Amino acid sequence: MRRNQLFLPIKILNYFMLLLLFLSMILPMINILSIAFSSNKASMLPGISLWPKDFSFEGFRYIWQKENLWRPLLNSIFVSTIGSGLQTLFSAIAAFILLKKDLPFRTLILSFIMVTMMIPGELTLVSIYTLNKNLGFINTYRGLIINGLVSGFSILLLKNYFQSIPESVFEAAKIDRASELKIFRKICLPMSKPGIATVSFIAFISKWNSLMIPVTIITDQKKYTLPLILKSLVFNSSSVSGTDFVSPNAIMAAIVISTIPLILAYLVAQRYLITGMTLGSVKG
Predict the structure, then answer these.
(1) Is residue 245 in a domain?
(2) pLDDT in tens, 23-50
(3) C-beta separation of 43 from 247 below 8 A
(4) Is this structure's pTM higher than 0.85?
(5) CA–CA distance from 176 to each of 14, 180, 186 (Å)?
(6) Separation of alpha carbons 245 and 251, rounded Å
(7) Is the Cβ–Cβ distance between 208 and 77 less than 8 Å?
(8) Which InterPro entries is this protein grouped with (predicted)?
(9) Which of 1, 2, 51, 160 has its CA at 20 to 30 Å from residue 124's CA atom?
(10) What is the pLDDT of residues 132-190, one digit of tens each?
(11) Does 187 reside within a domain?
């Protein structure tokens, strides 16, 4: 038996653990889809459902028409697209600047970026609200986009990715008298597509799923994002008009709709994600 081969009991245990992990992830998704495509009455039956009972689109019609899910969906698309685009741009610029070994206080800046990644966001909620109120960002799209716009993780990942570019490429560009901006646009960005795609995808997911910031600065329902409206539906709060009852199939339908853009984003970026994450995390 080869040294790198596992004993049969260990293999069986590994496969069993992987199976449990797979089931723990897939069963909740199947349950959500099953309830979403069930009728109002069938969705209220107790227990876990793995297949739609009394197949129906009632939940989707209700959540789209009566609860106006299209508005928070458009809000989330707008905020996540603009926010992730700006975050990727700013992170790339910061990463390019941090490549300069003669940058004053470079080590101190890198240490500060690392520290910001260690502070829990919940500890800054009061200061975030106060700052946004003073800046006039309460109940504005500007507040949703600007808050969380700078990511230490994205900066460090892109910095490590830029460092994977051979130094000879930069030296050749300098010999040709290329400006720093041209080196950034013509060399760093084109040669770092996997890293750029990874940062963009992570930023989009973060903005799309963000709940803490919207809860803190948004009270106007016209500016609700999907996480906010889902929270309101689940806890039967102000999103439900009057005494209307939101059935489980409508809530699950909202969850299904909210995941579609994430799946599409993953399909677009998947060819770059593995390369971007592995190279960006190991290069130093």
Answers:
(1) no
(2) 888 988 899 999 989 888 888 888 788 8
(3) yes
(4) no
(5) 55, 12, 13
(6) 11
(7) no
(8) MetI-like (IPR000515), MetI-like_sf (IPR035906)
(9) 160
(10) 999 999 999 999 999 988 888 889 889 888 888 888 888 888 888 888 889 898 888 88
(11) yes
